[in-house]
Every structure is written in structure tokens, then in C-alpha cells.
Amino acid sequence: MKIGFIGLGRMGSNMVRRLLRDGHQVVAYNRTAEKTREIAGEGAEPAFSLDELVAKLEPPRAVWIMVPAGDATEAQIEDLMALLAPGDTIVDGGNTNFHDDQRRHPALKAQGVNYVDAGVSGGIWGLANGFCLMVGGEPQPVGSLEPIFRALAPAGGYLHVGGPGAGHYVKMVHNGIEYGMMQAYAEGFEILHASQYALDLHGIAAMWNHGSVVRSWLLELAERAFRDNQELAHLKGWVADSGEGRWTVQEAIDRDVPAPVITLSLLMRLRSRQDDSYAARVLAALRNEFGGHAVKTE
Fold first, then answer.
1. Mean pLDDT, to the nearest integer, of 284-297?
2. Which residue is catalytic, options 45, 171, 223, 244?
């Protein structure tokens, strides 16, 4: 299958590589031409403008946008809509607020263009392990793109979860859960770190990953982070939030659903920006390990 792909950042470039590895054709565009040339050297067909990208696709076209949510995505969609034709499809794979999906879908549909929202999880490990895909949209455009979704995801890692906005809604809650899990690990390891015993945190994380009920991929990443320096002294305990945690908490409030763990984990991220703590350094290390997110160093 042939697809256009806009955005060749940490995740986007690896998504293109995974598609190429599965035999799909990808027309790739990035605002920075160097990244476009780099992926072209690996088999993608380069485009150095949106006009060129659209011209290299045969109708009905499909274009995947993998740029930061908000203004950047809005600008790409606006520019694409001036070039696409009825029957074409736009896939937004960023961390978009589902309210934006619900607004965009009818606006694009009125012009005959399909809109699909895809929540993507997998971080910098997605090329090797696959990307978990939570997809929302109408059945026909989603179904036509299933070869792409199945190439990107590991076995069992793709699901059409519902109508327009449902993909990003499920990804939003997924990230809220992630906040709570990471905070629990961070607090537990801080207790261990502060104990009267000289504990090997790397060894404990490794041991828990064999048969324990708290074993998980996040714990594997904690094991990795502790391997060389369990003090994490090279990190500041400053932890960003990318929006989905806040949106999850707001949705919980709007739906009268008590969500104290997710709410407090979000508040702890805000707390991390006011004063350094070991737990926040653990959070920063985990985000860097699984997603290559920026960290602040001493």
C-alpha cells in the first residue's frame, strides 16, 4: 500500500521504517529537508513540499500526519485540505485532544475528505517492538487503512476502538493510567532508596521482573535506568506532562468519575517543577528510557 507521511521525528521516522520493512510504499515529507533525505536513503520516496507529496500519491490518497498536536497539526491539515480531493483520507497520529477530532471530522467530511484519529504508543522502541494503535473513525476509511495499521502494530496491538475521536480518547486515558503507574514506581523506589538498608535498586527491579505481580515494561525500563547509576544524579527531578494527563483528569471530573491516583500523579509532576526529588528523577529517567523525551541534567 502507498501512503504519504508528514513528520519524521523520533516516532515518525521509525514508523516509516517499519512500514518500509513490511513492503509498503511511503512518500515522506518533513519540514527539515535533512530528515527527508535521510529516510529517502532507506527506501522512502522523498517529497520536499506538501504539493509534491500529494502529487506523488494516487487517488484515493491517504496521508498520515505525525507532528505535535495543536497548532502544528491544524496548520498541516489546513494546508492539505487545499490539495486533497474527495475520497482522500487524513490520519492524525499525534497526541490530539479528542474534542479537536470531533470538530475536524464533520468539517472534513463536508468536503468529502475522511478523517481518522490514531492514538500511538510505543515511543522510541516502536521500530523493534511495534506501535500500539488505538484508532477512531468511520469503518470504511479505517478498514481501507488496516494494512498500514497492522504493519505498524505488533500482533494484537491494533484496534478500531470506535467512531471519530475514540482513538485519541482511548490514548488519553492510556496516558493517564501511565502517569499513575509511573508515579507508583517512583514512590516505591524512593522508599527503598531512603531505607536503612543499602539496597541494590537495579537488582530489585530485575528480580521483580521475574514472577512478581508488579512486573511490567515500565519496570524493565526502571531496571535499565538503574543499571549504571541508581542515584540518577545526572538527572534533575523535573518532569513534563504532554497534556493527556490533564485531559484525563478533566474528563474524569466531567463524567463524575473519581480518579484520585491519576489526579495526584499529575499534581506530582507539577510539584516536580518546584523542587527536586528522587521520585521525580525516577520519572524523568523512565520518560527518557521509553520515549527518548528530553531530560534536564545537573
1. 85
2. 171
